[in-house]
Amino acid sequence: MDDPLKPKPVPLAAETVLWFEFLLDPELITKHLRKPHPDPSALELLTQFISTTPDIVVPQFDLTTPEPTAIPGAGAEGGLRLSRKQMALKVLALKVATWLKWNLDILEKNLSIPKQLFLLRDLCTISFGKCVGIPLNNEFQPTITPDGNEKAAKFALAFYHRWVLRLQILKDIALKAARPTGMGNMFVEPMHQFFAPDISPQHSIEFLQELCKSSEPFYVFAYETFKPPHPNDEQNIPQQFDALLQISPAELRTQVYFDLVNFYLYTKQYQLAREAVNECRRYLNLTKAEYEMIGKNPKQFVFCHVNEDELEGYLLACGLSAHSQTLTERFNMAQLTQYKDIIEILKLDNRTRELSLVNRRIAELDIEGAISQGILQEPRQLEMQVAALNLIRSIFDEGNIFASVDYFEKYSQLPCFQAICEGIADILPHCTLSERNLLKQFVIETIIKHQNKQWLQETQQLNIFSPIEIQDLEKQIQEEELPQPPLALLHEWKFNSKMLRIEIGSLERQLISCTNANTVRKLLVKLAATNPTKPLWTVNPSWEIATPIKSLLMSMQRGFLQDFAYVLLGKSREMTAKGDYIGAVSMLSVLKSETQRPELQNSSIISKLGKLVSWEILLIQITQCLDEWNHKTLDLQSLGNRCKQCLSSLQTNDNIIPRIEIIESCAIMLLNLNDWNAVIMLDKRLPQLELAISFANTFLDMEKMKGPKKICRDAWDLVLSMFLNTSSKRGGSAGGSGSGGGGSSRNSPCLAVSTGLYPFLKRIRHQMLFNLAISMLGKIHNILKDDPNHDLNGEYMQLWPTSISNPIGYSIRSVCETLHWLLTEALKFYPQTIPWLKMKGDLELATGNNEAAMRCYINALVTGTDYCNVPLQRNFADDYIIRKMIRCSSNLGCHMQATVLCQFLEEIDYGIVFKNLTEKTSNYTDAMDAYYSCIWDTTLLEFIINLHAKKGEHSRKLEAISVMGTLELNANNNDEIKREAASIRKSRFLRALAKQYLL
Hints:
There is one protein chain. The protein contains 45 helices and two strands. It has a two-stranded antiparallel sheet. By secondary structure, the chain is mostly helical. Helix content is about 60%, strand content about 0%. The protein is elongated and about 135 Å long.
């Protein structure tokens, strides 16, 4: 008895035809395919015919050494040796493919690669009249047996080579899409389903190019070409090759060029792609015209299956489209054509605001880099104009801050405000009233901030200010003028008195104030005539010179050269202190030339003076280089070579050496220039060089990749000893780096640091030097503080030891002060170094300065997002910094800010969230409903709604409900929409924090 619960097979529909019925009735295939919705469909039939062919053995191609699987049943070269069933299945498969017009787009989307190979094999087998292995070898000879046909073979080869080009793209896409599934099994999963022979496309490209050049007729298969054998016939019926259809050369070339364009664009052969797509468009128009002449439309093309939308896309990609380009297309094309017409495009976008500000900003940075490297041969004016137009565009973006932070600093030497006025004048006629007010407010803030009257005059041409507003602006930027008597404005006091004392006083005053060496020479000659015995270098007691060079001058014979040298040396020192390095060097250059006069060449004391003056010039130039580090006004390579020459004098037996300040400055300068080897060769016995040599050794150890345990610890020991509170057993290391080296410096960390460490740290400029010093001080702080909640986090801290013996004996306060000062100095030279900003925030938090810490953290995040223009990434806002920001906000009483920040964590800590929401805020900047638009976590919003309901705050509850009901916060959205919603709200919240803490 049958089980009543056993499922019964579902009966087939009455119109369903089984595949083997087509073998029994060859006419059935035509009737079936002509149905409106045949079941099975043409593609299903094609798949079934290929899959059930008796001679099929599924080929397992090795991608590295492809060998085609031999076809069973291959006969002699004289003709086919196939069974009637094999022939019937092959013919039926080819008949269905002809019904589909041999459309490669359809076939490659619905057939696997092995089935495509089998279809190609059957096509070549029938066309050549012999069994053919696929893929074809490059040495394949297209010999045709009597069972084949030359026209059919030509079609088969054309179809095969078109398929080869498409296969290369499919394989490449599959390889790029592959993902590792585990160690030692890389890229197995996707490629297991996508195996294909490795065929070189070059032979196929050459074949198709020759085919396009050929003038011989080309034929394609018609549906009536294939005749499947009848089961009652004893012999196979030959195929009706006379039914092949001839197509025009234009239609053939249209399709072939279309395939070539697809391949050329994918392989980045853009010049060939431009030529091919141009030909494709031309022949497509010819083909359309030919079909129109016989009363047909493009849907009735026999061979050509060109998608005109795709062709238009290719034309756009190659810059050959006849359609008007959108602004985005023009912008993208400008980046490919050396930024041609970029100014016009940006001006148009300021009106339409179609382009993304991020893309515009990236283009600006690309132009800046290309001009600075000499890749783009354009004046810097172009770079400034692009930056000005981007600045104007940013005015209309709500919440976009800091847009003009770098602009006025970067282009202060160019007419930067004029470029802004030109951009505003272009956009003003197209602005609404509110947009005009935004531009007006920006101009007002800019003029008041920079206090520039000239800019106010330039804005009057814009006609955006009324006369009353202009007067008010003039008052705000007008400097208060203090009344000065006319006597105080005189540069030279002239007296009618002929008293000698008054004349000498006037000459001495001119000598003190003059800044030209030739003027000094003339005044000294005049003053020497009044009193030859008086030393003229005593005129100004403020003139100070270094002790070694002063001793040398005092040993010289009394005369003009002594006075001249002393005055010029004193004046150069004054000018160096004021920052006039060029004037100071010119003074000493004149003095050096004076010592090289022929009549003074034989004097040893004059020769020594010349050397000392050269070293003083070097010291001034080192000071200038350190002071103007970001500008690189001097030739650093030449300066480094002169520093080495100066230090090499220590190795000679000469009786004159540079003074210790110059030696120390040269060593530190070589450190800043990455010349570690030159530094470690110095004499370690000089206490002033200990720090420089120890840092150089540390860098060399890092370059040798010895690892943290084998890193040189001399720098660590030396710096650590300077923070000792009590007498150290180290004989003078703590104080030895200072000038005195006495016991008081060893007993006082403040004195040891100020005399030994600060002078060294003040002169470091290289980013790695800053990194090393900061990481060392940060590590010392962490060990002395011994509080995981207040640990500082930074780069290279793993290099240093993890413990200090007797930590109580060190001054943590001095470490904090030194590290804070060093971070401030480092950020002056490299203000966008995010790890330093984060460490400074950690230090401020450790010392209880929550607001300053929050300012540093926000500065780091704003810098990492290019002033809130790009989405915030996890590498900038990891859980470590976010938790510190949450703690700062809670300490400041900004509990709602802390709540919003909890969303930035990788896993939201709802314990902290609910605790902060129940706390009563104590800061007027932390209104709860002000931050609803920055929340994207629906659980958080639900809790807020519930909280308002409990408190009876109906209006706030409705506001939170309206935020929760926005479309982008729908729980059913895909991950991409959710990420975009979170990214927008993160940027919005970050801008709000930046306005509060940074502006």
